[in-house]
Design goal:
homodimer, alpha+beta, BirA Bifunctional Protein, domain 2, Rossmann fold, Translation Initiation Factor IF3, 3 domains, eleven-stranded mixed beta sheet, five-stranded mixed beta sheet, 36% helix, 25% strand
Chain lengths: 499, 499
């Protein structure tokens, strides 16, 4: 084994290895994203307008995301259900704001078998309406509440310009739906779920996100209050990564979700909904990548360690067997490990391939290493290879992965803080947005002004950080950066361009 | 605590407990089924034609099914992917048999947003076509094969008369799709998956099923060979519980799934598909139930043990705390345990409720039991309660559950064997079918004759048991029970009415 990544076999493949690379992130972020998604085997375009195919590596990543969240939902007392994919068109029409928000994006089913439908169905854009309808039949007394429900599935919203994971006509998510006896309990639920999302992003995906409330014009169609977590991508744009809504009694009144109170009176339930979708994979890619490709956070990575047996033709099988032994030892510590047994591609090709796929740690094992009792280890976030005693490499792997996880969170946090500026004039505001930054500015709260800012700069109010948000939570008074009127909210609002 | 199931609290609720019961299975199997599904909180009707809502207890059961199968698919080298829910109508039209099979059942999407589509989409009835299309783009060389793919999701097939889990317009499943270099490998895959389904049914769901090949007229639309597992319900009807298809090169030729062989020639892949759907829950219900309701096989039961604290008003909280302690001990052995903490319903109501839901073991814990260091244990499949030392009850729980699992499989196997008869004349055939049995008969293999038998008796050929099937595999020669011609297949075919 040599140290320059060129092992023993076909050097002709080095050209292929180069071709396999991607446009550097620093050259064209958009091209880099699209190429990484395809070449890392995350997703592919489909023949269905706006829909993607999630490929094995992307699917394994999504499964890990689903499993963590699902465990957490269950641990906090939520129950999964399965509601139909179709919703009667008339249901969507029942809540006025909801109609307005979703009508332009609906997929309509007009025909079943040979029968033309007089009452069409829509493919769900979200399920508040049909769930409200079902709850109405299930709810009698305050004793039945709370309903703490969620489902995993896909939803459908027409998109003109699509981008894998970020904006697809069919996307994948859980939607949580809960019903409570009063506002207090409902709002506590809304907050609990936002905090779970925040914890998930920070501790598992290594994504620093800002918890905050949306301004009125950025609310979910039908909500009284919408809370979000917002992350900064490496091009400075914001990505709304999860939302939690307090719906008041709007849907419960539209769908008659009514119960007898402890005091024997009638009341309508206070409801919530919350979601994280497959676009979180877009956030992960655009937060952690570099010019070489993806960087998977170890805590969610489908493959945490890849073992590459480095042999010549006459001892390749033996090295593969040794690689499997090493993998078995690593798996015994609960790690997700893959042995790259591919024959007929060069080591250089393999190294590039796993770098592009963002596997946190690569272990190379060659015949001479075996003799000397060492292995060569390379972290995805470092340019250096290390030669280590085998036992040390194995024993230290969990700590090594934790170190990479921490490094990713710190890099992303530093990047977000470095690219967020406080501005107090509209000129500064525009210049900072143009420079690809987030701005923290006072705002009067007038939706007309928000709209004018958006038309002018393409930036929108991302959220108003909560008092206990990890970032940007300071209480402060000032005047609106746009209108000069007194500022609302008692603190600065985050503005930025968004995905 | 008393032993007759009437504890201490409100006797008035005994009436409610009776009302809570279901029509006995022996009185009306169909009513029993529909009532059990609703009252056990498995599923509910939905406002969408032919679609159901799967409620928490049903969803938890389905999740256990998904988890077991998913682990097994991964362990046998399969990878999950996610394909779009919609398929271009033109794709469905490409494989002639496929069109004919599915056209009458399709859900058609004609409109997206405000745009009327000139090229409509269908909601997938199954995904061979779009997967074939994608494979065509991914496949180059024999080195790329096999593709061992599957996805979890729902599919859509219009149904006029629906029945929860058994026949719904939207149903839930995995669909496996694999592509291979030759027929031999593809057929090995088809058989491997059938055997996994068989193992799952027998060892996990306690369902005896017959592995066999379908006759030509019962094949999947587009398959060269279809294999199924067939189970017998407690009304004597058959339920096809899983299928595995060899598709030859039909779909790969229709979608150009072509590769360069080791010998540098061009060939089309040999493909397979296989599925178990949410109807397996119907099979489970109809195989294991009794007059009181469900009987969940312990190996898949969402709740394996329910602990019922039996206290009066003044010590109920204390008994709940003791119940939680007991549950924690049981959970420490890896068991799925629920403590019924409901206040305001009688013990009798709770007992009936959990019997109806089919929880394998109930443990009652009252103040006097606590003092004496005993608990009262009742198996779902027995009328007797046992009073046991607490440590014995806890320590013996895993064996107790295994015993119930074995009892269920034996009961179902005996039932199937007792209700299957060999017949050699068409009169015997008709009489046995009329009596609700399966018949084993020789058949000439003529599809016209199968059709005539179906029109005459409503019975269809379920399958031709494989040579190594656990049941009914004997090689035998004879003449067709219907036409008198020489029998095909070299053994008797199973006929029965089906769900």
């Amino acid at each position: 084994m040599t140290k320059d990544g060129k092992g023993n076999s076909d050097k002709g493949n080095d050209k292929k290895a180069q071709q396999y690379g991607v446009t550097p992130q620093s050259v064209d972020f958009n091209d880099w994203y699209n190429e990484v998604v395809k070449k890392a085997d995350l997703a592919d375009n489909s023949p269905v307008a706006g829909a993607m195919v999630i490929k094995p590596y992307g699917s394994a990543l999504w499964e890990n995301i689903v499993r963590w969240l699902d465990d957490r939902f269950k641990a906090t007392g939520h129950e999964s259900l399965v509601f139909p994919t179709l919703i009667p068109m008339s249901f969507i029409m029942k809540e006025a704001d909801h109609v307005e928000g979703f009508a332009p994006e609906l997929f309509t089913v007009n025909k079943i078998g040979t029968e033309d439908l007089t009452e069409p169905y829509v493919m769900r854009p979200t399920s508040e309406t049909i769930i409200g309808h079902m709850w109405s039949g299930w709810l009698n007394s305050y004793r039945d509440l709370p309903f703490l429900h969620y489902q995993w599935g896909s939803v459908f919203r027409a998109e003109l310009r699509t981008k894998a994971f970020l904006r697809t006509s069919e996307f994948y998510w859980h939607e949580g739906h809960t019903a409570h006896v009063n506002e207090l309990e409902a709002r506590a639920e809304v907050r609990q779920m936002l905090d779970i999302y925040h914890e998930f992003c920070r501790d598992i995906l290594a994504l620093p996100v800002v918890r905050g409330e949306k301004t009125a014009s950025e609310r979910f169609a039908g909500a009284l209050a919408t809370y979000s977590i917002e992350g900064m991508m490496r091009d400075g744009k914001a990505l709304q990564s999860g939302t939690s809504h307090y719906l008041g009694q709007k849907f419960s009144k539209a769908f008659d979700v009514k119960f007898q109170t402890r005091e024997q009176k009638e009341d309508w339930a206070h409801t919530t909904s919350w979601a994280i979708s497959s676009r979180i994979i877009g956030a992960l890619i655009m937060t952690h990548g570099d010019d070489q490709g993806l960087m998977m956070p170890p805590n969610i990575a489908p493959i945490q360690v890849v073992v590459i047996p480095v042999g010549r033709k006459d001892n390749f099988d033996e090295m593969v067997a040794e690689g499997e032994k090493l993998a078995a030892e690593l798996r015994a510590s609960g790690l997700r490990v893959k042995v790259d047994k591919r024959d007929g591609v060069s080591n250089g090709f393999k190294y590039n391939d796993w770098e592009l796929k963002g596997v946190p740690v690569r272990v190379e094992l060659g015949p001479r290493d075996l003799e000397s009792g060492v292995v060569v280890v390379k972290n995805r976030n470092s340019a250096e290879k290390e030669t280590l005693p085998r036992a040390e490499a194995v024993g230290g792997m969990t700590d090594r992965l934790a170190g990479i996880q921490g490094w990713l969170l710190k890099r992303a946090t530093d990047f977000m803080l470095d690219n967020t500026v406080n501005v107090d004039t509209y000129e500064e505001f525009k210049a900072a947005i143009e420079a690809g930054k987030w701005v923290r500015a006072f705002h009067c709260g007038d939706p007309e002004s928000e709209k004018a800012i958006k038309d002018d700069t393409k930036a929108t109010a991302r959220n108003i950080p909560l008092d206990d948000a990890e970032f940007f939570a300071e209480a402060e008074e000032g005047v609106c950066v746009h209108t000069g009127k007194p500022a609302a909210y008692g603190k600065r609002v985050i503005f930025g361009r968004q995905y």
